[in-house]
């Protein structure tokens, strides 16, 4: 009997995740019917406790990496970007508006406010956001400091008053980013996303009109003009990214450069926390990056969302989010059945309190911490676990082997997370090291290194994007090398001289040109993203 794949949802949601997983043949975890460790995926919108990472078993995945609050909380994001700009300069880290954290930075803010007020002939506007609230709650905009009133920790930013408008309406982009691993850093961006509109025309003379200045759907869906036609925007307040691409075609701009700059924002932001996030290969995380484009087509990072909303408010949501969730599940590398969990539960005697990940034929389950789950003689070190609940029995073939039907398929089995090693997996409370859940997969390799696939569903791998960044991320992350490669790629797109694109490191290995075919990346953003190698050869 094959073990069914089981998912847990915190507080019964999000409903879309349940719907997608049930359609794929999964079963939902029932506390009354299953053992506490009898699940494969635990999905929640809030933070996991540290102990939940420490106690992960080899067949279990979580939908959040530990300690990513460094970019998802507004004040932490501001501090980390400020640190990166001070360390590596403002040439690359110029995508975030001037930001202050109040009350701590009030004196600095006041000095900047007075300086700009005296130096500039035009008005300067500021936007205030509570550091730990979402969905547009508590946000307001002001010009005169007498209107600055707050009763909690807030971030205050220069308000981008020259944003790009469509039919007079402000908008921003919700970019969906999946971080498959922080060690080594492996990043994917989804080809589809959302364009979120304000529902009243942009007007700086009415700063208190949230329907004109905020793009949050949770606010605008209650606006008086939400269901009315709004010029080219149409009804509602959302487009798909595909529709936005059609709009860009009508603009006389370098579209590929715009997409690359957005891609750079994602990578540079993740670099700010990559070295501080503990290694946890059993985790995959979906972030929502909110990007605003100004009138000069420069993209700005507004914030990074932890657990971006998966509610379905309109047809654009349905078109984008269902496929998005399905692709995230594919990114988690599940096989047709959970043989690892199945064997561990079916083995009746566990004499060693460890899991030897380098011997897949005979997995050994770590002694569980929950003593109430133990069965048998209390004085014995042998632990007997119950059989797994199974959903259906696959049909047997003539040779007696099981034929699997209607079970979860593995379409991303080439996706590695960590390097192979001979380490033995144990579960000490003080350690973050977990087993490599992709150890049994056949990896694509370049020069002896594991290479994550170029594409998983509609997710495009955006980091690493060439040989130099692959090498720079394999062991201790070499941020300076990564920044040099980002500048090199972006510079070639600015100049349009793609056929000359070679980093200094790549020039040293020109004799090994054929090896490039084993490692390539797509240029994320366009409808039909080209391979970097082919694009620069053809320009």
UniProtKB/TrEMBL annotation:
Pfam families per the UniProt record, alphabetical: TTL (PF03133)
GO cellular component: ciliary basal body
MF terms (GO), sorted A to Z: ATP binding; tubulin binding; tubulin-glutamic acid ligase activity
InterPro entries assigned: TTL/TTLL_fam
GO biological-process terms attached to the record: microtubule cytoskeleton organization
Keyword ATP-binding set for record: yes
Gene3D superfamilies per UniProt: ATP-grasp fold, B domain (3.30.470.20)
UniProt keyword list: ATP-binding, Ligase, Nucleotide-binding
Keyword Cell inner membrane: no
Domain of life: Eukaryota
PANTHER family for the chain: TUBULIN POLYGLUTAMYLASE, TUBULIN POLYGLUTAMYLASE TTLL2-RELATED
Protein's name according to its UniProt entry: Tubulin tyrosine ligase-like family, member 2
